[in-house]
Amino acid sequence: MSLIFFIKKPKIERGYYKMVIIFKQNTEKSVIEKIKKEVESEGCQTTVSQGKDYIVVGVVGDTSRVNFERIQANENVDKVVRVQEPYKKAGRHFHPQDTIVDIEGNKIGGKRLAVIAGPCSVESEEQIIEIATRVKQSGANFLRGGAFKPRTSPYSFQGLELEGLELLKIAKKETGLPIVTEIMSTDFIDRFVEDVDVIQVGARNMQNFTLLKELGKTKKTILLKRGLSATIEEFLMAAEYIMSEGNENVVLCERGIRTFETYTRNTLDLSVVPAIKKLSHLPIIIDPSHAAGMWWMVEPLAKAAVAVGADGLMIEVHNDPANAKSDGQQSIKPDKFDEVMKKVRAIAEIEGKEV
Ligand code: PEP
Ligand code: MN
């Protein structure tokens, strides 16, 4: 059976199909026409090719509104193959140049390596000021510290919450270091926008889409950590949620993923850096502390992160790790952080970056 269609020459967007629908061999012309019309009614263009075994419909244009799952459910459809990534704003395709995020003159992305350091949790005024002062002396550009803590156990320390934000502000006043801290829900979003320089979305909230959308309505820089079991595509789609609401100030952070290995807390996926650099224009930093879960692995992994082309590091530093309220086992002392910075600086230089 041969099917011949009169096809208006479609406007091919950048010369390739974005989506291909493959129909089974004996599909009725009327079925193909119906699906073609559905796709075209969403503003896309189609072309039909009749092969010996299959009928292929190529789709170009903005396919974001097409319900391909429903098309896939049609019994005449053999499969739907996507040719282009589903993230438009986070993707490099329409935005070839690297994004450099500017936080009051402190940049993430580009030539300078951004270093975010500080304790897992803010515990007291003395603690946060001492650590902030020390990491600044060693060359950190941002201060981290959790005020709202996502803990595995509800009985573990949950953070100082709003008091923690106040203490971070004091540390910023003392040192001038901009603050990076995690938001857990939309509850205090206005306070975070007011008080915080970079809002962190933790691994556990990477797919909290309500939170991502609300953060997308702000202009704050969002540090988006990769989910525990998130694929690179899911990671970039989470960034897309923020960006699709209008906030393009997104920094990605790899912090290790869940694998079958149990020796380390997580498995640091260093290949994500070149992958993200190819797929996206967004800056990507590495958190070796949460990745390994062991303080003595922080230095080698931090060095590897810089060598592989990361735009920055997030490192947990504590003045008294043995008595830290959270993540002491993976926190390095200020002296060790100073040493790590010296090593990292040397590698950054080889990579043509400054610290
Ligand atoms: C943190 O940065 O303290 C944290 C909880 O990280 P993650 O979300 O990567 O586990
Ligand atoms: Mn931590």
TrEMBL record:
GO biological-process terms attached to the record: aromatic amino acid family biosynthetic process
Which ranges form a coiled coil?
none
Q: Which InterPro entries match?
A: Aldolase_TIM, Class-I_DAHP_synthase, DAHP1/KDSA, DAHP_snth_FXD, DAHP_syn_2
Pfam families under this entry?
Answer: DAHP_snth_FXD (PF18152), DAHP_synth_1 (PF00793)
Query: Is Transferase among the key words of this record?
Result: yes
Q: Keyword Ubl conjugation, does the record have it?
A: no
**What EC number(s) is this enzyme filed under?**
2.5.1.54
Source organism, top-level taxon: Bacteria
- What are this entry's molecular-function GO terms? 3-deoxy-7-phosphoheptulonate synthase activity; aldehyde-lyase activity
The stretch of residues making up the signal peptide is none
Q: Which UniProt keywords apply?
A: Transferase
Protein name per its UniProtKB record: Phospho-2-dehydro-3-deoxyheptonate aldolase
Which species is the source of this protein? Answer: Clostridium felsineum
Q: Which gene encodes it?
A: aroF_1
